[in-house]
Design brief:
alpha/beta; Aspartate Aminotransferase, domain 2; 2 domains; seven-stranded mixed β-sheet; four-stranded mixed β-sheet; about 15% strand; globular
Length: about 450
Protein backbone atom coordinates (compact mmCIF):
# COMPACT_ATOMS: atom_id res chain seq x y z
CA UNK A 1 0.00 0.00 0.00
CA UNK A 2 1.19 3.51 -0.80
CA UNK A 3 -0.49 5.49 1.98
CA UNK A 4 1.30 8.78 2.62
CA UNK A 5 2.61 9.68 6.08
CA UNK A 6 0.06 12.49 6.20
CA UNK A 7 -2.81 10.08 5.48
CA UNK A 8 -1.67 7.68 8.19
CA UNK A 9 -1.41 10.52 10.70
CA UNK A 10 -4.91 11.72 9.84
CA UNK A 11 -6.40 8.22 10.04
CA UNK A 12 -4.63 7.69 13.35
CA UNK A 13 -6.29 10.81 14.78
CA UNK A 14 -9.66 10.09 13.15
CA UNK A 15 -10.05 6.39 13.93
CA UNK A 16 -7.52 4.82 16.31
CA UNK A 17 -8.28 4.80 20.04
CA UNK A 18 -4.99 4.25 21.88
CA UNK A 19 -4.91 2.38 25.23
CA UNK A 20 -3.94 4.21 28.43
CA UNK A 21 -3.61 7.40 26.37
CA UNK A 22 -5.34 10.77 27.06
CA UNK A 23 -6.72 11.07 23.54
CA UNK A 24 -7.46 14.79 23.61
CA UNK A 25 -3.82 15.54 24.38
CA UNK A 26 -2.67 12.91 21.89
CA UNK A 27 -4.68 14.52 19.08
CA UNK A 28 -3.02 17.89 19.74
CA UNK A 29 0.42 16.55 18.82
CA UNK A 30 1.87 14.98 15.72
CA UNK A 31 1.74 11.21 16.25
CA UNK A 32 4.85 9.06 16.07
CA UNK A 33 4.00 6.09 13.87
CA UNK A 34 6.33 3.09 13.96
CA UNK A 35 6.90 1.45 10.60
CA UNK A 36 9.64 -1.08 11.34
CA UNK A 37 12.21 -2.15 13.92
CA UNK A 38 15.55 -3.88 14.30
CA UNK A 39 17.58 -4.88 17.34
CA UNK A 40 16.76 -2.55 20.22
CA UNK A 41 15.46 0.20 17.92
CA UNK A 42 12.03 1.23 16.68
CA UNK A 43 11.91 3.18 13.39
CA UNK A 44 9.12 5.63 12.53
CA UNK A 45 7.70 6.38 9.10
CA UNK A 46 10.11 9.32 8.75
CA UNK A 47 13.06 6.97 9.26
CA UNK A 48 13.93 8.25 12.73
CA UNK A 49 15.20 5.61 15.18
CA UNK A 50 14.24 5.32 18.85
CA UNK A 51 16.01 3.16 21.40
CA UNK A 52 13.27 0.97 22.90
CA UNK A 53 13.78 1.73 26.59
CA UNK A 54 10.65 -0.07 27.82
CA UNK A 55 10.78 -3.25 25.71
CA UNK A 56 7.62 -2.27 23.82
CA UNK A 57 5.61 -2.30 27.06
CA UNK A 58 7.82 -4.65 29.09
CA UNK A 59 7.55 -7.65 26.76
CA UNK A 60 10.45 -7.60 24.29
CA UNK A 61 13.30 -9.84 25.38
CA UNK A 62 15.78 -10.30 22.52
CA UNK A 63 15.17 -7.16 20.48
CA UNK A 64 13.24 -6.81 17.23
CA UNK A 65 13.63 -8.83 14.02
CA UNK A 66 15.53 -11.67 15.68
CA UNK A 67 16.22 -14.28 13.03
CA UNK A 68 15.57 -17.32 15.23
CA UNK A 69 12.18 -15.95 16.28
CA UNK A 70 11.23 -14.77 12.80
CA UNK A 71 12.13 -18.19 11.38
CA UNK A 72 10.08 -20.05 14.01
CA UNK A 73 6.96 -18.16 12.93
CA UNK A 74 7.65 -18.67 9.20
CA UNK A 75 8.24 -22.39 9.67
CA UNK A 76 5.03 -22.78 11.67
CA UNK A 77 3.10 -20.84 9.00
CA UNK A 78 4.01 -23.61 6.55
CA UNK A 79 2.21 -26.09 8.83
CA UNK A 80 -0.81 -24.43 10.48
CA UNK A 81 -1.45 -20.89 11.71
CA UNK A 82 -4.27 -21.72 14.10
CA UNK A 83 -6.22 -24.65 15.40
CA UNK A 84 -8.49 -24.63 18.44
CA UNK A 85 -7.45 -26.28 21.71
CA UNK A 86 -11.10 -26.99 22.53
CA UNK A 87 -10.99 -30.78 22.29
CA UNK A 88 -7.91 -30.81 20.04
CA UNK A 89 -4.18 -30.55 20.67
CA UNK A 90 -1.50 -28.97 18.53
CA UNK A 91 2.20 -29.79 18.41
CA UNK A 92 3.73 -26.42 19.45
CA UNK A 93 1.29 -25.90 22.34
CA UNK A 94 1.98 -29.39 23.72
CA UNK A 95 5.73 -28.91 23.48
CA UNK A 96 5.49 -25.46 25.09
CA UNK A 97 3.43 -26.79 27.99
CA UNK A 98 6.10 -29.40 28.64
CA UNK A 99 8.92 -26.82 28.49
CA UNK A 100 7.15 -24.47 30.90
CA UNK A 101 6.60 -27.26 33.42
CA UNK A 102 10.31 -28.12 33.23
CA UNK A 103 11.31 -24.47 33.86
CA UNK A 104 8.73 -23.46 36.46
CA UNK A 105 8.98 -23.86 40.24
CA UNK A 106 8.45 -27.46 41.33
CA UNK A 107 4.88 -28.68 41.58
CA UNK A 108 3.43 -26.60 38.74
CA UNK A 109 2.53 -29.38 36.33
CA UNK A 110 -0.56 -28.18 34.47
CA UNK A 111 -0.67 -25.40 31.86
CA UNK A 112 -3.74 -23.47 30.71
CA UNK A 113 -3.09 -21.16 27.76
CA UNK A 114 -4.81 -17.86 27.08
CA UNK A 115 -4.11 -14.57 25.29
CA UNK A 116 -2.53 -11.99 27.61
CA UNK A 117 -1.66 -11.20 31.20
CA UNK A 118 -5.16 -10.24 32.26
CA UNK A 119 -6.65 -13.46 30.90
CA UNK A 120 -3.93 -15.49 32.63
CA UNK A 121 -4.91 -13.90 35.95
CA UNK A 122 -8.62 -14.20 35.18
CA UNK A 123 -8.23 -17.94 34.64
CA UNK A 124 -6.37 -18.32 37.94
CA UNK A 125 -9.08 -16.44 39.86
CA UNK A 126 -11.85 -18.60 38.43
CA UNK A 127 -9.87 -21.81 38.94
CA UNK A 128 -9.26 -20.90 42.57
CA UNK A 129 -12.94 -20.31 43.34
CA UNK A 130 -14.09 -23.43 41.51
CA UNK A 131 -11.36 -25.51 43.17
CA UNK A 132 -12.69 -24.78 46.65
CA UNK A 133 -16.22 -25.73 45.55
CA UNK A 134 -15.29 -29.18 44.24
CA UNK A 135 -12.00 -30.22 45.82
CA UNK A 136 -11.66 -33.40 47.88
CA UNK A 137 -12.30 -31.24 50.95
CA UNK A 138 -14.71 -28.64 49.57
CA UNK A 139 -14.94 -25.25 51.27
CA UNK A 140 -17.45 -23.32 49.15
CA UNK A 141 -17.27 -20.36 51.51
CA UNK A 142 -13.76 -19.57 50.26
CA UNK A 143 -14.73 -17.13 47.49
CA UNK A 144 -12.83 -13.92 48.26
CA UNK A 145 -9.38 -12.69 47.32
CA UNK A 146 -6.73 -10.68 49.13
CA UNK A 147 -4.59 -8.36 47.03
CA UNK A 148 -2.23 -5.47 47.66
CA UNK A 149 -2.95 -1.79 47.43
CA UNK A 150 -1.33 -0.41 44.32
CA UNK A 151 -1.75 -3.74 42.54
CA UNK A 152 -2.41 -4.02 38.82
CA UNK A 153 -3.34 -7.41 37.38
CA UNK A 154 -4.96 -6.52 34.05
CA UNK A 155 -8.14 -5.08 32.59
CA UNK A 156 -10.67 -7.92 32.46
CA UNK A 157 -13.25 -7.52 35.22
CA UNK A 158 -11.89 -10.19 37.55
CA UNK A 159 -8.34 -8.87 37.15
CA UNK A 160 -9.65 -5.33 37.66
CA UNK A 161 -11.39 -6.42 40.89
CA UNK A 162 -8.12 -7.59 42.44
CA UNK A 163 -6.32 -4.49 41.18
CA UNK A 164 -6.20 -1.26 43.15
CA UNK A 165 -9.54 0.59 42.80
CA UNK A 166 -7.78 3.96 42.82
CA UNK A 167 -5.20 3.10 40.18
CA UNK A 168 -7.24 2.84 36.98
CA UNK A 169 -10.54 1.29 38.01
CA UNK A 170 -12.71 3.91 39.68
CA UNK A 171 -15.40 4.03 36.91
CA UNK A 172 -16.01 0.29 37.17
CA UNK A 173 -16.47 -0.14 40.93
CA UNK A 174 -20.14 -1.08 40.63
CA UNK A 175 -19.17 -4.05 38.44
CA UNK A 176 -16.54 -5.54 40.73
CA UNK A 177 -16.52 -8.17 43.47
CA UNK A 178 -15.18 -7.30 46.92
CA UNK A 179 -11.44 -7.76 47.49
CA UNK A 180 -9.63 -7.59 50.83
CA UNK A 181 -6.77 -5.06 50.62
CA UNK A 182 -3.39 -5.41 52.29
CA UNK A 183 -0.88 -2.54 52.53
CA UNK A 184 1.67 -2.38 49.75
CA UNK A 185 5.38 -2.75 50.53
CA UNK A 186 6.16 0.82 49.45
CA UNK A 187 9.27 1.51 51.49
CA UNK A 188 9.85 5.05 50.16
CA UNK A 189 6.35 6.07 51.23
CA UNK A 190 5.82 3.54 54.01
CA UNK A 191 2.10 3.09 54.80
CA UNK A 192 3.09 2.84 58.48
CA UNK A 193 5.23 5.98 58.44
CA UNK A 194 8.43 4.08 59.20
CA UNK A 195 11.96 4.57 57.95
CA UNK A 196 14.18 1.73 56.67
CA UNK A 197 16.22 1.71 59.89
CA UNK A 198 13.12 1.08 62.03
CA UNK A 199 11.21 -1.12 59.59
CA UNK A 200 10.36 -4.65 60.66
CA UNK A 201 8.38 -5.29 57.46
CA UNK A 202 5.12 -4.31 59.15
CA UNK A 203 3.41 -4.44 55.76
CA UNK A 204 3.82 -8.20 55.49
CA UNK A 205 3.01 -8.66 59.19
CA UNK A 206 -0.29 -6.85 58.55
CA UNK A 207 -0.93 -9.08 55.54
CA UNK A 208 -0.28 -12.18 57.65
CA UNK A 209 -2.83 -11.02 60.22
CA UNK A 210 -5.40 -10.37 57.50
CA UNK A 211 -4.90 -13.81 55.95
CA UNK A 212 -5.37 -15.47 59.34
CA UNK A 213 -8.46 -13.39 60.10
CA UNK A 214 -10.14 -14.12 56.75
CA UNK A 215 -8.78 -17.62 56.07
CA UNK A 216 -12.23 -19.24 56.06
CA UNK A 217 -13.42 -16.99 53.25
CA UNK A 218 -10.20 -16.50 51.26
CA UNK A 219 -9.82 -18.48 48.04
CA UNK A 220 -6.41 -16.99 47.29
CA UNK A 221 -3.89 -14.22 47.81
CA UNK A 222 -2.79 -12.50 44.59
CA UNK A 223 0.66 -10.88 44.38
CA UNK A 224 3.17 -9.58 41.85
CA UNK A 225 6.39 -11.29 43.04
CA UNK A 226 9.23 -8.91 43.99
CA UNK A 227 7.97 -5.89 42.02
CA UNK A 228 4.59 -4.16 41.77
CA UNK A 229 4.77 -2.94 38.20
CA UNK A 230 2.08 -0.38 37.38
CA UNK A 231 2.17 0.90 40.97
CA UNK A 232 5.52 2.49 40.10
CA UNK A 233 7.97 -0.42 40.18
CA UNK A 234 7.57 -0.88 43.94
CA UNK A 235 10.24 -3.32 45.17
CA UNK A 236 9.16 -5.60 48.02
CA UNK A 237 11.62 -6.07 50.92
CA UNK A 238 13.72 -9.21 50.95
CA UNK A 239 11.81 -12.14 52.40
CA UNK A 240 8.38 -10.56 51.82
CA UNK A 241 7.26 -13.08 49.20
CA UNK A 242 8.50 -16.02 51.26
CA UNK A 243 6.43 -14.90 54.25
CA UNK A 244 3.34 -14.53 52.07
CA UNK A 245 3.81 -18.11 50.89
CA UNK A 246 4.30 -19.37 54.45
CA UNK A 247 1.14 -17.78 55.82
CA UNK A 248 -1.00 -18.91 52.90
CA UNK A 249 0.20 -22.48 53.39
CA UNK A 250 -0.47 -22.33 57.14
CA UNK A 251 -3.99 -20.98 56.56
CA UNK A 252 -4.98 -23.22 53.63
CA UNK A 253 -5.19 -20.32 51.19
CA UNK A 254 -3.99 -20.55 47.59
CA UNK A 255 -1.26 -18.25 46.26
CA UNK A 256 -1.52 -16.69 42.79
CA UNK A 257 1.80 -15.32 41.56
CA UNK A 258 1.29 -12.81 38.75
CA UNK A 259 4.63 -12.89 36.91
CA UNK A 260 3.26 -11.35 33.73
CA UNK A 261 5.70 -8.43 33.93
CA UNK A 262 8.53 -9.97 35.97
CA UNK A 263 8.89 -13.43 34.42
CA UNK A 264 11.38 -14.71 31.84
CA UNK A 265 14.55 -13.17 33.22
CA UNK A 266 13.35 -9.64 33.85
CA UNK A 267 14.39 -9.72 37.54
CA UNK A 268 17.64 -11.59 36.85
CA UNK A 269 16.29 -15.14 37.19
CA UNK A 270 13.93 -17.05 34.93
CA UNK A 271 11.04 -16.44 37.35
CA UNK A 272 10.92 -13.96 40.21
CA UNK A 273 9.52 -16.59 42.61
CA UNK A 274 12.77 -18.51 42.33
CA UNK A 275 14.70 -15.75 44.13
CA UNK A 276 12.91 -16.62 47.39
CA UNK A 277 12.39 -20.32 46.58
CA UNK A 278 8.62 -19.87 46.50
CA UNK A 279 6.33 -22.42 44.88
CA UNK A 280 2.95 -20.77 44.22
CA UNK A 281 -0.29 -22.61 43.49
CA UNK A 282 -0.75 -20.57 40.31
CA UNK A 283 1.88 -18.89 38.13
CA UNK A 284 0.54 -16.39 35.59
CA UNK A 285 2.77 -15.67 32.58
CA UNK A 286 2.53 -13.53 29.42
CA UNK A 287 4.54 -10.59 27.97
CA UNK A 288 8.03 -12.15 27.66
CA UNK A 289 6.63 -15.62 26.98
CA UNK A 290 6.93 -15.11 23.21
CA UNK A 291 9.88 -12.74 23.44
CA UNK A 292 7.42 -9.91 22.79
CA UNK A 293 6.40 -11.20 19.36
CA UNK A 294 2.81 -12.48 19.65
CA UNK A 295 -0.01 -12.47 22.23
CA UNK A 296 0.16 -15.62 24.35
CA UNK A 297 -0.30 -16.26 28.06
CA UNK A 298 -0.21 -19.23 30.40
CA UNK A 299 -1.61 -20.08 33.82
CA UNK A 300 0.35 -22.87 35.49
CA UNK A 301 -1.07 -24.78 38.44
CA UNK A 302 -0.66 -27.98 40.45
CA UNK A 303 -2.00 -31.50 40.10
CA UNK A 304 -3.91 -30.87 43.34
CA UNK A 305 -5.87 -28.03 41.74
CA UNK A 306 -6.24 -29.83 38.40
CA UNK A 307 -7.61 -32.99 39.99
CA UNK A 308 -10.58 -31.07 41.43
CA UNK A 309 -11.83 -30.50 37.88
CA UNK A 310 -11.86 -34.19 36.94
CA UNK A 311 -15.08 -36.18 36.75
CA UNK A 312 -17.75 -37.38 34.36
CA UNK A 313 -19.21 -34.62 32.14
CA UNK A 314 -22.58 -34.76 33.86
CA UNK A 315 -20.93 -33.92 37.20
CA UNK A 316 -20.25 -30.38 35.94
CA UNK A 317 -16.67 -30.19 37.19
CA UNK A 318 -15.22 -29.04 33.87
CA UNK A 319 -13.48 -25.64 33.71
CA UNK A 320 -15.79 -23.85 31.29
CA UNK A 321 -13.45 -21.05 30.34
CA UNK A 322 -11.36 -20.45 27.24
CA UNK A 323 -10.42 -18.26 24.32
CA UNK A 324 -10.58 -18.69 20.56
CA UNK A 325 -6.81 -18.32 20.19
CA UNK A 326 -5.86 -20.35 23.27
CA UNK A 327 -2.57 -22.16 22.56
CA UNK A 328 -2.21 -20.57 19.11
CA UNK A 329 0.45 -22.57 17.19
CA UNK A 330 2.26 -19.47 15.90
CA UNK A 331 2.52 -18.01 19.40
CA UNK A 332 3.59 -21.35 20.88
CA UNK A 333 6.22 -21.86 18.17
CA UNK A 334 7.85 -18.48 18.75
CA UNK A 335 7.63 -19.01 22.53
CA UNK A 336 9.63 -22.24 22.15
CA UNK A 337 12.25 -20.40 20.12
CA UNK A 338 12.34 -17.67 22.78
CA UNK A 339 12.98 -20.24 25.50
CA UNK A 340 15.82 -21.71 23.44
CA UNK A 341 17.54 -18.30 23.38
CA UNK A 342 16.97 -17.37 27.03
CA UNK A 343 19.75 -19.35 28.76
CA UNK A 344 22.53 -17.35 27.05
CA UNK A 345 20.67 -14.11 27.73
CA UNK A 346 20.43 -14.98 31.42
CA UNK A 347 24.16 -15.78 31.56
CA UNK A 348 24.97 -12.27 30.34
CA UNK A 349 22.54 -10.46 32.62
CA UNK A 350 24.69 -9.98 35.78
CA UNK A 351 27.12 -7.58 34.07
CA UNK A 352 24.23 -5.58 32.61
CA UNK A 353 22.43 -5.43 35.95
CA UNK A 354 25.61 -4.16 37.64
CA UNK A 355 26.15 -1.48 34.97
CA UNK A 356 22.49 -0.50 35.25
CA UNK A 357 22.88 -0.13 39.03
CA UNK A 358 25.90 2.16 38.59
CA UNK A 359 23.93 4.47 36.31
CA UNK A 360 20.95 4.50 38.65
CA UNK A 361 23.14 5.36 41.64
CA UNK A 362 24.37 8.43 39.77
CA UNK A 363 20.81 9.42 38.87
CA UNK A 364 19.87 9.14 42.55
CA UNK A 365 22.04 12.21 43.23
CA UNK A 366 19.92 14.45 40.99
CA UNK A 367 17.89 17.02 42.96
CA UNK A 368 14.46 15.87 41.79
CA UNK A 369 15.04 12.11 42.09
CA UNK A 370 13.34 11.02 45.30
CA UNK A 371 13.74 7.26 45.05
CA UNK A 372 15.09 4.67 42.63
CA UNK A 373 13.86 1.09 42.74
CA UNK A 374 15.75 -1.58 40.80
CA UNK A 375 15.24 -5.29 40.36
CA UNK A 376 17.27 -6.90 37.60
CA UNK A 377 16.75 -4.87 34.41
CA UNK A 378 13.71 -3.13 35.88
CA UNK A 379 13.93 0.37 37.32
CA UNK A 380 11.46 2.94 38.57
CA UNK A 381 12.80 6.47 39.10
CA UNK A 382 10.40 8.49 41.27
CA UNK A 383 10.58 12.23 40.63
CA UNK A 384 9.62 14.67 43.39
CA UNK A 385 9.28 18.42 43.74
CA UNK A 386 11.20 18.43 47.01
CA UNK A 387 13.70 15.73 47.85
CA UNK A 388 13.92 16.35 51.60
CA UNK A 389 10.15 16.25 52.21
CA UNK A 390 9.32 13.76 49.42
CA UNK A 391 6.73 16.28 48.19
CA UNK A 392 5.41 15.08 44.82
CA UNK A 393 4.90 17.30 41.83
CA UNK A 394 1.36 18.44 41.08
CA UNK A 395 -0.35 16.02 38.70
CA UNK A 396 -1.09 18.90 36.36
CA UNK A 397 2.65 19.48 35.90
CA UNK A 398 2.93 16.11 34.10
CA UNK A 399 6.61 15.99 34.91
CA UNK A 400 7.03 12.32 34.02
CA UNK A 401 5.50 12.94 30.59
CA UNK A 402 7.76 15.94 30.03
CA UNK A 403 10.89 13.92 30.79
CA UNK A 404 9.77 11.21 28.39
CA UNK A 405 9.11 13.75 25.65
CA UNK A 406 12.61 15.14 26.10
CA UNK A 407 13.98 11.62 25.77
CA UNK A 408 11.99 11.05 22.56
CA UNK A 409 13.56 14.16 21.11
CA UNK A 410 16.93 12.52 21.76
CA UNK A 411 15.93 9.21 20.20
CA UNK A 412 14.94 7.23 23.30
CA UNK A 413 11.42 5.84 23.80
CA UNK A 414 10.30 5.52 27.43
CA UNK A 415 6.90 5.83 29.16
CA UNK A 416 6.19 7.05 32.69
CA UNK A 417 3.87 5.82 35.40
CA UNK A 418 2.75 9.23 36.64
CA UNK A 419 6.00 10.82 37.81
CA UNK A 420 7.86 7.51 37.97
CA UNK A 421 10.16 7.06 34.97
CA UNK A 422 10.23 3.40 33.97
CA UNK A 423 13.33 1.85 32.44
CA UNK A 424 12.96 -1.73 31.24
CA UNK A 425 15.09 -2.32 28.14
CA UNK A 426 15.21 -5.60 26.20
CA UNK A 427 17.28 -8.14 28.10
CA UNK A 428 19.52 -8.55 25.06
CA UNK A 429 20.58 -4.87 25.09
CA UNK A 430 24.38 -4.49 24.98
CA UNK A 431 26.34 -2.38 27.45
CA UNK A 432 26.92 0.46 24.98
CA UNK A 433 23.20 0.89 24.34
CA UNK A 434 22.44 0.52 28.04
CA UNK A 435 24.89 3.37 28.66
CA UNK A 436 23.19 5.47 25.99
CA UNK A 437 19.75 4.84 27.48
CA UNK A 438 20.84 5.79 30.97
CA UNK A 439 22.91 8.81 29.94
CA UNK A 440 19.94 10.17 27.98
CA UNK A 441 17.50 9.69 30.84
CA UNK A 442 19.98 11.22 33.29
CA UNK A 443 20.31 14.31 31.08
CA UNK A 444 16.54 14.66 30.63
CA UNK A 445 15.85 14.45 34.37
CA UNK A 446 18.67 16.93 35.02
CA UNK A 447 16.83 19.47 32.86
CA UNK A 448 14.16 19.68 35.58
Amino acid sequence: MNDTPQELERWDRDHLWHPFTPMQVYADNRPIIIEKAHGCFLVDQDGRKYLDGVSSLWCNVHGHRVEALDSAIREQLDKVAHSTLLGLGNVPAIRLARRLVELAPAGLTRVFFSDDGATAVEAALKMAVQYWQQSRRPKPGKRKFLALRGAYHGDTLGAVAVGDPELFNRPFRSLLFETIRAPQPYCYRCPFGLEPASCRVECVAELEQMVRKHADELAAVVVEPLVQGAAGMIRAPEGYLRRVREVTRQCDVLLIADEVAVGFGRTGTMFACQQEEVQPDFLCLAKGLTGGYLPLAATLTTDEVYSAFLGRPEEGKTFYHGHTYTGNPLGAAVALANLDLLPKVLERLPAKIDRFREHLQRMAQLPHVGDIRQCGLIAGIELVADKSSKQPFAASDRVGVRVCRLAMEQGVFIRPLGDVIVLMPPLAIDLALLDRLCHTVHACIAQL
